[in-house]
Amino acid sequence: MPPLSMMIKPVSAACAMRCRYCFYADVSGRRAVKSYGAMSRDTMRALVRRAFAYADGAVSFAFQGGEPTLAGVGFYREFVDLARQYNARNLRVSYALQTNGYELSDELCAFFAENRFLLGVSVDGTREIHDALRQDARGEGTYDRVMQSVARLRRHGVDYNVLCVVTEPVARQGAACWDALSEHKYLQFIPCIDDFDGDRREYSLTAASYGQFLIDTFDRYEAAFYAGRPVSERRLDNYLMLLLGRRPEHCGMAGQCGLYFLVEADGGVYPCDFYVLDEWRLGNVNESGLRRMESCERARAFRAMSLERGEKCAACPWFGLCRGGCRRDCEPWQNGMPSENRFCESYRRFFEARLPRLEKLARAVEKGNS
Any idea which residues carry the catalytic annotation? Predict the structure, then answer.
């Protein structure tokens, strides 16, 4: 069997913050059960056992939420101990955790450092934008509190990157948001998605703004490289990989959906964190193995649907780099076919404006790595 990537929601949708654009609040609200509470020890053990029975070569465990740090340091200590216990074949094991950074204790940070967890911390560009969109349960901004958590991670030597959701306010200040975050060196700019109902909000990202955002941030990315102070940004890094003939690691740029296993707190398994919905539930780790779930009809249908492309995609000169984009950006589906990717115009504008410079940068990166 292949290496395994597993995403785990140890406290389901529970969170101490109330980010205005939270996609998981929408997803979980569309299920019969909105929140599955905290993962039990029995479910944790079943999950770890199934993972090592399935995987070959390597296992990657990534924790998300809600807010996964609410599970507490005891949960993660027990999880790591179980992984050591069940790793009889001595597979490579890696850990990652995505956090809002609202509360990271010294105890948690020390544990993450000791066990080499990679942390993804959400920071939405400038203080003003972050505080307007990422608020706590009292409606107060969280920028200062998150920056204190980042400083704590640094003191403990925890590897981390910064995750910035690209809403319309972020996109309109792309250069300023890059400048506010580039000191962290490892960035991911994630385009905001609207709820499944398709209603637009004041923060909803438009295709025109996102296209300009890609141009603005690429200019900063390019300048940093040539100045000898490179900054990693996941999407732009993946474009370089594609231009150099390498396989992208970003699932939304692979051209089709794979199947990583998203495990909710009750042990329920789904094919993707954007689709943790009752209609896509593949099974439960307490009841069946991952191989059975991987080959079930729902899993096959999920993968097959991602291969569908409209006529415009087939004729697009940029398809080799765009690959059709993330399936979630092609909602709603009608008659078994996706809608046009809502960022189609964004990618077209970016490639038309910057492809020659992107290709030149790819060659420079390859030369520097040779």
Answer: 273
